[in-house]
Design brief:
The protein has about 130 residues and is mainly alpha-helical. It contains four helices and no strands. The longest helix is centred in the N-terminal third of the chain and has 26 residues. The termini are far apart.
């Protein structure tokens, strides 16, 4: 029973991996990433077709993944479609090294009392 469960989890992991690589090949803003992902998909499809499977479930899983990859790679490419790119939001808070919004406030080490007072020394008897 555990072997079947392990195999099903493994099949789900393989499917998620293939789906993520197909997403990279389709939606990555970097052309080199799309090219490498497409190359890896074509190599994986060839390996899946040539694999010797132990069970009918493995055969079905690998045949479906190979067919999905082939369908993905054979799709017409829409060159006019812009690749979605969203710039990340600025992190919260002031930039590193900046004092932030309290730049009008006195520095924390500043005190209105003078650091040295002649009056203190003049009034003090020796």
């Amino acid at each position: 029973m555990f072997r079947r469960l392990d195999r099903r989890v493994g099949n789900a992991e393989e499917r998620v991996l293939v789906d993520r690589v197909m997403w990279l090949a389709d939606a990555s803003p970097n052309g080199q990433v799309r090219a490498i992902a497409s190359l890896k998909l074509s190599k994986l499809a060839a390996r899946l077709k040539a694999a010797v499977n132990k069970t009918e479930l493995d055969t079905a899983q690998r045949t479906l993944m190979a067919a999905d990859i082939k369908r993905f790679l054979d799709r017409p490419i829409d060159l006019a479609k812009p690749i979605p790119f969203a710039a990340p939001d600025a992190p919260p808070g002031a930039p590193i090294g900046d004092v932030g919004y309290d730049w009008l406030a006195p520095a924390p080490w500043y005190s209105r009392a003078p650091a040295f007072s002649w009056e203190y020394w003049e009034e003090r008897p020796m």
